[in-house]
Specification:
Strand order of the largest sheet of chain A: 8-1-10-9
CATH architecture of chain A: 2-Layer Sandwich
Oligomer: heterodimer
Strand order of the largest sheet of chain B: 1-2
Structural class of chain B: mainly alpha
Number of domains of chain A: 1
Strand content of chain B: under 5%
CATH class of chain A: Alpha Beta
Number of domains of chain B: 2
Largest interface: A-B, 60 and 53 residues
Number of strands of chain A: 11
Radius of gyration of chain A: 19 Å
CATH topology of chain A: Alpha-Beta Plaits
Helix content of chain B: 55-70%
Strand content of chain A: 15-25%
Distance between the termini of chain B: 7 Å
CATH superfamily of the largest domain in chain B: Formate dehydrogenase/DMSO reductase domain
Order of helices and strands of chain B: HHHHHHHEEHHHHHHHH
CATH class of the largest domain in chain B: Mainly Alpha
Helix content of chain A: 10-25%
Structural class of chain A: alpha+beta
Number of strands of chain B: 2
Radius of gyration of chain B: 22 Å
Number of helices of chain B: 15
CATH topology of the largest domain in chain B: Formate dehydrogenase/DMSO reductase fold
Chain lengths: ~270, ~425
């Protein structure tokens, strides 16, 4: 039914990520790349994480034990681009937005945000269990001269609207334009990559079409060590995580339950 | 009253009633303008400096404003439900309080829309909710029904204004008021239809959030069970709020305005509906425990972070639910002024607490195991901009009481 939204001959994708938590060092390069790529505003003191605009946030978690059993892991968390399935057939945030300012693309599997249509009711933020959506509590400002270095492909958001990770959608558009110019219908895997994927020095983030067997993510998501955050809720996210450590996998898929009781957040 | 001692605006008073001197009226209106100005300053700060002037944040996108919105709409439910009882069920005695219920309703619904106008980040785009409406969103249903019902309330309020002694002398307005009165059963029925939907949709706002196990509920067709609970709770507490405001007005006016038997009818109906609501609420809570457990959210985790301990559940259902229900069911308590007012206060506080829980506690619950609980409390800007509607409402009530025939029994109860 969902595919009926598109012409039969139209190429569709299901873009997603696989993040190897055993490789992630928590360096934060993905966060910086994301901010630079997507013109994310910041304040002089940006330490208040509850009000800062982070599309990609790296959580540091611990198994809660003492040395020498102490173990930590970093969890990079972009928008999960949930699809929903079964009983919950819609993305949690998309179905609640009263002004259709956020939408699920059946062409790409990307959850978009229309900044010029959002009127800032923040219902989508309440709906998202991953806290991926952020509100512009201030007008965006940059240090003197820095505005000249903003990415011209990404619109700057005004105060009072909600924003979130778009999987660098402008890069998809650019890649698609290039493909059309070259009379191709399909994108190569390396033609469309997100900024965080390219910035990760450890190669922990892999991005691609989850339903294309030729893409790396297709194989990686099938790892026995792969999991998704809050799988039980039925949000059907497109971010897969891989970790060989049991306690990390359990921390991702429980809700303060017995399994995750020792997990602490720093 | 001889004309020499009568206030200079006495020609505008309803026939055969006494009002205080104009200077005292003006004094109290001026006093209320103090906190109103504080609220106006808070509003201008929100609009001018953006919402960073509040204590809301990305973990708490909903705070006092939305909780108050849901609470005010529930309390204002007395308007449509009293109208329903008067015009549809045809309980004749309620004609003596239905006018006042309408005035309270107008204030509540205007307040709810006003608060939303401050709460949204881009107030000038508020109309997008109608223009780009997403029919799947509970908020869309709320916006349409609240706006339509507010218009219905204004139409119900209009004949009261037209019945002002001087306005009513004009033939056209006299006729208009008469015809509006004649159409009131139809208008009230439309209001009931709209109210059922938006009261329910407001309950459905958190109920559909399947990413939030604390709030999510299964339901019937597209409506979660909270949809129906919200309707029931609104009609259970709305009449009690009408009783409370009437009682407070009587204290301020220094005289009885509505006969006890009228109040008793509302209190009795409220008590019975509250019992029904509580039975369903307890059943809902039991089912919800199993539902949340199914998605990995144990019941204890919902009450693991202070200030949201088990006391919240006990207070909401027990102290502010079962106790007022028992009190309202007792005829002896209902006939005792203090007992009745305490029961009504507890009932209204319980519903307000319920709205806070379904809105703010929902945001407070960490969902990911590695997410950290953070607390939220509103700051003065949020309090001032919420309470401003209470003060403005008080001025509207003062004006309505002074110049409009709100209370049909006043003349009989207080002969000059």
């Amino acid at each position: 039914m969902k595919e009926a939204h598109h012409k039969a001959d139209e190429k569709t994708y299901k873009f997603g990520m696989v993040i190897d938590l055993d490789k992630c060092t928590g360096c934060g390069a993905c966060m910086v790349a994301c901010m630079a790529e997507n013109n994310l505003p910041f304040r002089k003191d940006n330490s208040d994480r509850l009000r800062s605009n982070l599309w990609m946030r790296v959580y540091k978690i611990s198994n809660g034990r003492s040395f020498p059993d102490l173990d930590i892991s970093f969890i990079p968390r972009p928008c999960q681009h949930c699809e929903g399935h079964g009983h919950h057939a819609a993305t949690p945030c998309v179905s609640v937005c009263p002004a259709t300012a956020t939408d699920y693309s059946h062409e790409t599997g990307i959850v978009s945000q229309v900044y010029t249509r959002c009127f800032g009711c923040r219902y989508c933020m309440a709906a998202c269990p991953y806290h991926v959506r952020v509100f512009n509590w201030w007008d965006p400002t940059w240090p003197k001269g820095m505005s000249k270095y903003l990415n011209p492909d990404v619109s700057v958001r005004m105060r009072g609207v909600v924003e979130k990770c778009s999987f660098c959608y402008h890069r998809y558009q650019r890649a698609k334009n290039k493909a059309y110019a070259e009379e191709r219908r399909e994108l190569h895997e390396d033609e469309y990559q997100t900024a965080c994927t390219q910035a990760c020095p450890a190669g922990a983030i892999t991005f691609g079409d989850l339903k294309n067997p030729e893409h790396k993510v297709y194989k990686l998501k099938k790892s026995p060590y792969a999991f998704r955050l809050l799988e039980k809720l039925g949000t059907n996210p497109k971010i897969y995580y891989v970790s060989t450590r049991d306690w990390v996998r359990k921390a991702g898929d429980v809700y303060l339950g017995k399994e995750g009781k020792d997990v602490t957040h720093a | 009253m001889d004309s020499a001692s009568a206030p200079f605006d006495s020609a505008l008073f309803p026939e055969g009633v006494k009002r205080c001197k104009f200077k005292w009226f003006l004094f109290w209106v001026a006093v209320l303008h103090g906190p109103i100005m504080v609220g106006v300053i808070g509003t201008l700060m929100c609009w001018g400096l953006a919402l960073n002037v509040t204590y809301l944040n990305n973990n708490y996108p909903f705070g006092l404003w939305i909780a108050a919105d849901l609470g005010i709409i529930a309390l204002g439910g007395g308007a449509f439900f009293t109208g329903f009882l008067r015009y549809v069920v045809n309980i004749e005695e309620l004609k003596n309080i239905v006018n006042y219920a309408v005035v309270i309703g107008v204030i509540c619904y205007a307040a709810a829309q006003g608060i939303l106008g401050i709460d949204i980040g881009q107030p000038l785009r508020g109309w997008f909710i109608f223009w780009h409406a997403n029919v799947h969103s509970m908020l869309t249903e709320v916006a349409f029904c609240i706006t339509c019902y507010f218009m219905v309330l204004c139409i119900e309020y209009l004949p009261l204004i037209l019945e002002n002694r001087q306005i009513n002398k004009l033939g056209f307005f006299h006729g208009l008021a008469h015809h509006l009165h004649g159409a009131m059963p139809t208008i009230a029925a439309v209001g009931v239809f709209l109210s059922f939907f938006h009261q329910g949709s407001l309950g459905g706002v958190p109920g559909v959030l399947y990413g939030r196990p604390f709030a999510f509920r299964e339901g019937f067709l597209v409506w979660p069970w909270t949809f129906f609970l919200a309707i029931l709770s609104a009609i259970a507490c709305g009449p009690c709020f009408t009783i409370l405001v009437t009682w407070f007005t009587e204290k301020c006016a220094g005289k009885q305005l509505v006969k006890k038997n009228v109040i008793d009818i509302l209190a009795k109906i409220s008590g019975r509906l509250l019992v029904l609501y509580l039975i369903l609420k307890i059943l809902d809570t039991i089912v919800w425990v199993g539902l949340a457990k199914g998605v990995g959210a144990p019941f204890s985790s919902f009450y693991a972070n202070q200030p949201y301990g088990y006391w919240v559940l006990i207070t909401e259902i027990g102290i502010l639910g079962i106790i007022p229900a028992m009190l309202l069911l007792s005829e002896r308590v209902r006939r005792n002024e203090a007992g009745l007012i305490i029961a009504c206060l507890l009932n209204c506080a319980g519903i307000f607490m319920n709205r806070w829980i379904i809105v703010v506690q929902t945001c407070a619950q960490p969902v990911m195991s590695f997410d950290k609980f953070v607390s939220y409390h509103p700051n003065w800007v949020e309090y001032a901009t919420t309470l401003v509607f209470v003060w403005v409402g008080a001025v509207v009530i003062m004006l309505s009481y002074r110049y409009l025939p709100i209370f049909p029994q006043e003349k009989e109860l207080n002969p000059l």
